[in-house]
Amino acid sequence: MTAAPRTNRIVVGLAVAAVFAGLVWADATGLAGAAPAWWLLPVVIMIAIGSVDELVRLCGTRDLLVPSWLVRPAVVAIPFAAAAGAQAFSAATALAAPAVALGWAAAAFAGGVMVLVASEVAGYRPHGRSVERLAAATFIMAYAGLPLAFMVGLRLLCVENIGPEQTGPGHLGIVPLVSLVAVVKAGDVAAYAVGSLIGRQRLAPILSPGKTWEGAAASVAGSLGAAWLVLQGTGFAPATQPWGGWAVYGLAVGVAGMIGDLAESLLKREAGTKDSGSSLGGLGGVLDLVDSLLFAAPVAWLLWAVGR
User: Fold this and answer.
1) Distance CA 173, CA 30 (A)
2) Whole-prediction pTM
3) What is the sign, positive or negative, of the torsion defined by CA atoms of 105, 83, 46, 269?
4) Domain map (residue ranges) of the chain
């Protein structure tokens, strides 16, 4: 990568980080009386729409026309339903069941599948590749929508009320969500920096020639460092920790992020394209930015949900 694209990548990355940091602050403080997750929900919706559009375009390179007009609202509805399900956390009896809000997301996913099937039934034509379209559309909903719901679920873990005050012994606040982003992105940055400088041994030479074992090792180290910093090193460690503590969390979430990166490489390789899109300039498309987060989010949520 030449100096100009690298500079563009850094500038766009810093701009995205600054916007995200501002929204995290607004959400964590309950700015304007907003309930948890609602300041961040517009970002989630933008990611959902961008991811769907890019995945539909990737499917189109294989002559598979997925109905984006149906899949787009279905994917948006999945994390939105999880946020709306925060009402379930307002009752003290629901505090021990962090999966309650994600039940709304599962219901939205099931409803989306039903709508897609109904659409194919209504417009069925022999040899029209209905089953293939349904499989691709369902995959998009699962690949993009459900992980975004887990991210929303991370923000809602142990929320004891839905007002901005959010105080009490079970309060985790924004820490679980921030820990996910910090661990995954620290790993991404470390892998990119070390892999570009000293990477020699190819990690997946056919699937993704640019990834190296040296970069993977740096990614794990970066993820572990970020996990320690967020969960222990800042002096604001929450009373509840993810299962296994910061070391298990950093390793598991970091490795899941790397697998997510490789998963998107598989999709792009099959589509014969380098980037999923160009909406983020030097960073590529939306999927190029969030691919690692999509795989890491369910792992992070599970470790926090069973933590003590």
Assistant:
1) 10
2) 0.91
3) negative
4) 3-305
